[in-house]
Amino acid sequence: MSPSPLASIEEMVARLERALASSPADDTEIVWIEARRGQESNSKRRRDNFEVQERTLLVRVRESGRIGIHCTDVADLANVEGATRQALAQARLSSPAPPLLVPEGAAGEPPRPAAADLCDPELARMSPARARELIQGLTDRDETALLGWAEGRVAVLNSRGLRRAAEATSAWVSVSCGQTPGAGRAAAVARTLDRLNAAEVRDRARRRHAAAGDTAELPSGPAPLVLSPEGAAALVDLLNRQALTSSSFHEGTSFFQGRRGEAVFHPSVSLRDDATDPDGLPFPFDFLGSAKRPLHLIDRGVFLGPVVDERLARAMDCLPTPHLVAPDEAVAAHLFLAPGEQPDEELLRQADGGIWVGALDAVEGFDFRTLRFRAVARGVRRVEGGTLGAALPDLVWEGSLPDLLSRVLGVGRSAAPVAAGDPLFGATSAPMLAFDGVHGLRPAPVE
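Above: the chain sequence. Below: its structure as tokens.
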């Protein structure tokens, strides 16, 4: 059975306004998020295909200096008012809380991207049948594609006069040409189907595909390695999840703990979070209503600081940043690794005799404090004469992000956003990266 249509923004805001007006708490904050997500693939793994609908209602109250929070997935008026009473009951049992801290500029108007930058009517009408039709028209018989789509609506209101509401869509696609070593792979994510440009993603995968039977040997020692934008984005996403969230600082596991202002990576590495950039997945406010703004996290290899929630702000003696995904957690969701000046062809020439990696699967960290990682490199080819050469088998890659990001040989000029975290609200954009003296690769077990 297909999910029912999402509640309209106008209907939900009116409902939340009534619940807010009836709240007896000193301060009340209500967050409503409703979304439907789907995904279709022409692969044989049917678990790739799904369509789901989710709803989250969060009520946070402050009463006599105490905070209470209640979360539910039911959002009719009676349940919204019930959630407020539940939060009040919790507040009465809580310890006194420090005064509220809000991000700088939280009360101001958020940037207003054009409606076309946030919401695509065609994606709002997307169905599994329509997605299958698009995939079939995109790929040839020996190619596999996955197309995902999402539609979401968000409203944030509080008794201090803040009112935010927005609806957004997103689509993500990945294409693989063949199942042999050196198979071409490419991926992208965007707010609209036009920006996604699935045909260009398919063509990129085809250009990366090695000719059948053309195989080579793995270099015997450390060698240059060129990582596709999709692979680079996967490593940036791991860096973000393990070392840049507020929770990683609360838990004392972040590699960046105590390193603010230090040079930690190669000077060509700069990273920012920017929910206002239309080349990513723009969104005007965080999940507690603060207007989003660009935040530089790493500048020319120097760590500037993480995203900051209220608790971390007190520990760091600063204001929170507008990156809240929950009352007690801040996460950068719109990451951009800054491009360089070198065209892709120049990076390949610099890495001659090395390895090209088209994609990284199963990326995982196994030592947060040193940022060691393990991943499966797919679509691997030798770099021969400054171009993509013979295929290599899939490889298991174990390494250290700090070591790798200190060995940057070059940074590409063109970046591509790919899905990260929740593909409705998160993307990571990265260019091609070339590294020097990479080791720790070995043939992956045959699946």
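The chain has a mean pLDDT of 92.
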